[in-house]
């Protein structure tokens, strides 16, 4: 009877650890211990439909949310050991960051400080050796793989009335960029697109990850 109880407990513990694996966050670890990056972009009008944004920053575009170290099982490191954020390290990138990596709700430097502390500190590996490299890498990937124009090339343009199937959006991006992305939708709107990037900053196919799926069709809201 005791053996049966012990085996049952072991089974429960294994099941719990298997189901929670996908949401494991390793805080305070060493940089560079992850499988690939998720390069996450937000569609402004979907994000700003959910919270109050700074009106002058709203435009029809995907902007950068972050470059996030990620593991294939969905776990990820965060807040690693590393230097604190410093604006002076990225002075030469500031114009482009203000436009392509803005906070839509507050001061840009607060957003960059958060993204650096939570995700950037864990990214110090390979070509990313410092704060400047991290933000330059985000801008480089953003410029190399243009989601809006990849969609437009396949007739998928923002509209408040026309919806698009998730399959057509995914296929358009695979066709233009060459690799499988991940999508998130909120309230029937496409909110987020993630590209998967190797530690050498090359595009790769995204694995299926918990929390990254949309089904059916979606709207890409526009200015009208
Ligand atoms: P993360 O998703 O990188 O862990 O956290 C994003 C944090 O940045 C949140 O606390 C969010 O409130 C803040 N934030 C500031 N501006 C923005 C923005 O424009 N987009 C997003 N997604 N988060 C922002």
Automatic annotation (TrEMBL):
Any single GO CC term annotated in Swiss-Prot or TrEMBL for this entry: extracellular region
Protein origin, superkingdom: Eukaryota
Pfam families: Ribonuclease_T2 (PF00445)
InterPro entries: Ribonuclease_T2_eukaryotic, RNase_T2-like, RNase_T2-like_sf, RNase_T2_His_AS_1, RNase_T2_His_AS_2
GO biological process: RNA catabolic process
Keyword Glycoprotein: no
Signal peptide feature range: 1-20
Keywords: Disulfide bond, Endonuclease, Hydrolase, Lyase, Nuclease, Signal
Active site (catalytic residues): 65, 115, 119
PROSITE patterns assigned: RNASE_T2_1 (PS00530), RNASE_T2_2 (PS00531)
An example molecular function term from Gene Ontology annotations: ribonuclease T2 activity
PANTHER family recorded: RIBONUCLEASE T2
Family listed: Belongs to the RNase T2 family.
This protein's name: Ribonuclease T2
Species for this entry: Heterostelium pallidum (strain ATCC 26659 / Pp 5 / PN500) (Cellular slime mold)
Gene, per the UniProt record: ddiA
